[in-house]
Amino acid sequence: MGDESVISPKDRFLTVYGRKPVLEALDDAALEVDKVILADTVRGPNAAEIQRAAKAAGVPVRRASAHRVKVLAGNGKQDQGVLADVVAPRMRSLHAALSDGRSPSRVLLLDGITTPANVGMILRTATAAGLEGVVVPRRGVAALDPMVVKASAGVAFRAPVLRCGSAREAAEMLTEAGYGLYALGASARASVFDVELPQRAAFVLGGETNGVSAEVGELVTEWVSIPMPGEVESLNVSAAAAVLSFELVRRAGG
């Protein structure tokens, strides 16, 4: 798993790319932008506009090759030669969250959720519900990019995101830290409204098509379902996350 004591930039920043998202981030007084990276191929009015906005916000601008910008953005088609690293004050590694003596009592674990709209809405809902952690693995889940930020209506910047390599890695770390691991499954007999929960619990939300992965499923403590008396087979994963999140609010007396 590498040296977990080294803080990766991906555990500190949300990277937005493209002219408009970068300008919006620079113009938002509530956000702290660490730096802007501008491809050396971007010249003229477009470069001047970005540089003016960055100077007004007191943010340094670095030049890099167009290839480097594409690599950092992770999206070669839409970066437009510019990206910004926005400080996400509540984002940290899962390892750090489990090591500081104040580990969250309730967390969500995203497993194979690849639609940015779903990831964004889950981050918005979980933050609204006051959950202390949403584990977003770097592999197998939609990247935290402008589409996720847009779907969250900007809440992604201040969501309690916990990063790790994969959902399996997260499940192992949470289990070793004493968490009960609960997975949502439509056919589960236990209801999410009735199941008894331990002091610390993690809830796995599976992907849109395949649900919870087999490698995470084998570590699950108990499968739970959302009772649906109506003739509908399942809920969208972000809707299921909303039901779960606010059931946890209800249990906490919120």
Automatic annotation (TrEMBL):
<dbReference type="InterPro" id="IPR029026">
    <property type="entry name" value="tRNA_m1G_MTases_N"/>
</dbReference>
<dbReference type="Pfam" id="PF00588">
    <property type="entry name" value="SpoU_methylase"/>
</dbReference>
<dbReference type="GO" id="GO:0005829">
    <property type="term" value="C:cytosol"/>
</dbReference>
<dbReference type="GO" id="GO:0003723">
    <property type="term" value="F:RNA binding"/>
</dbReference>
<comment type="similarity">
    <text>Belongs to the class IV-like SAM-binding methyltransferase superfamily. RNA methyltransferase TrmH family.</text>
</comment>
<dbReference type="GO" id="GO:0008173">
    <property type="term" value="F:RNA methyltransferase activity"/>
</dbReference>
<dbReference type="GO" id="GO:0032259">
    <property type="term" value="P:methylation"/>
</dbReference>
<protein>
    <submittedName>
        <fullName>RNA methyltransferase</fullName>
    </submittedName>
</protein>
<dbReference type="InterPro" id="IPR013123">
    <property type="entry name" value="SpoU_subst-bd"/>
</dbReference>
<dbReference type="InterPro" id="IPR004441">
    <property type="entry name" value="rRNA_MeTrfase_TrmH"/>
</dbReference>
<keyword id="KW-0808">Transferase</keyword>
<feature type="domain" description="RNA 2-O ribose methyltransferase substrate binding">
    <location>
        <begin position="15"/>
        <end position="92"/>
    </location>
</feature>
<dbReference type="InterPro" id="IPR001537">
    <property type="entry name" value="SpoU_MeTrfase"/>
</dbReference>
<dbReference type="Pfam" id="PF08032">
    <property type="entry name" value="SpoU_sub_bind"/>
</dbReference>
<dbReference type="GO" id="GO:0006396">
    <property type="term" value="P:RNA processing"/>
</dbReference>
<dbReference type="InterPro" id="IPR029064">
    <property type="entry name" value="Ribosomal_eL30-like_sf"/>
</dbReference>
<dbReference type="InterPro" id="IPR029028">
    <property type="entry name" value="Alpha/beta_knot_MTases"/>
</dbReference>
<keyword id="KW-0489">Methyltransferase</keyword>
